[in-house]
Amino acid sequence: MHITAKLLRRDAEDQARNATTEVRRRSAVSRAYYASYHRCQRWEALLPYKSTCRPRGGTHAQLIDRLSEPNPFCGKALMDRSEALGELLAKLRHLRVIADYRLEHEIDRKVMESQIDRLKQVFEKCADPDT
Q1: Mean pLDDT, 10 residues at a time, over the chain (131 residues)?
Q2: Are 65 and 86 in contact, with CB atoms under 8 Å apart?
Q3: Residue 131: what pLDDT?
Q4: Sign of the C-alpha dihedral, residues 34, 39, 45, 48?
Q5: What is the CA radius of gyration of the chain?
Q6: Smallest Cα–Cα separation from 32: which of 107, 131, 127?
Q7: CB–CB of 77/125 below 8 Å?
């Protein structure tokens, strides 16, 4: 079966709804990031002009950098969306790193819900051509 960002999103939202332990909240936070990452990756591939920035770091940091520095030939509307997506993805990634690697930091329900809210924002930004 082919897995999509949309399926990952549903899984993150299901995990969040049923998260009765911190372990489950951490899993929902992580899954929300990966759903957003794959959705942003797909959205970026559809841009008429690719970013000319030369990002460093791993593939995740590179995507965030490219979204944050879109090609001006895309026009203001797409540039604004791209920059907003880069900012959202960076925030999602930050919380994912905490959830997956910083076990000394608590992931409470409020943190998890903010991650799910950002996930929804990413999908809305990628879907709405007028924002």
Answers
A1: 91 96 97 98 94 89 96 95 97 97 96 98 84 45
A2: yes
A3: 45
A4: negative
A5: 15
A6: 107
A7: no
Contact assessment for residue 119 and residue 32, using Cβ atoms and an 8 Å cutoff: yes
Look-up of token digits 């944050």: 68
* Close Cβ partners of 52 (under 8 Å, ≥ 6 residues apart): 69, 71
Burial environment of residue 116 by CB neighbours within 10 A (0 to 12, 13 to 18, 19 or more): buried
From the number of C-beta atoms within 10 Å of its C-beta (0-12, 13-18, 19+), residue 124 rates as exposed
Q: How many residues does the chain have?
A: 131
Nearest to residue 126, comparing CAs of 10, 40, 9, 22? Answer: 40
Q: Which two tokens stand for residue 4?
A: 């999509």
What residues contact 6, with CB distance under 8 A and at least 6 apart? Answer: 35, 39, 123
